[in-house]
Amino acid sequence: MKKIILENGKEVQINEESYKELQKAIQEDYIEKNASIGNYGFLGYMSKYRQKVKNTIRKNNQIYVNEIFADKSIFGDYCVFIKCKFDSGCEFGSNCKFDKYCKFDSGCEFGSGCEFSSDCKFGSNCKKTKPYWDENGKHE
Prior knowledge:
By secondary structure, the protein is of the alpha/beta class. Helices cover 19% and strands 21% of the residues.
């Protein structure tokens, strides 16, 4: 038996199976509302095993880890990307942060104030809306 505490402060006992079901439901609900969470890995391995994700809804304050995004995916403001790969034509809101090893095909568009690590790779015709500063504060 597992003991849980409800919002009103009352303690209740539930069996192990119910506890695991509740734990899974809470985790799925959190991920759906807050972020796309995954394991940390290498981009080279990602393309072999991961399917491309098509982002069709602009969401703010999202965290993406080890995702591969399909052509013309869209993202909201203040998003964080860690080791992600993007096809061409992806569109990003303002103030997004990109970790090193992010790769972009041609035609990606970025809003103002986005931050890029020095190891990010950009295809041709990627557009960074001015003003843009790199990680060392240098203005382009």
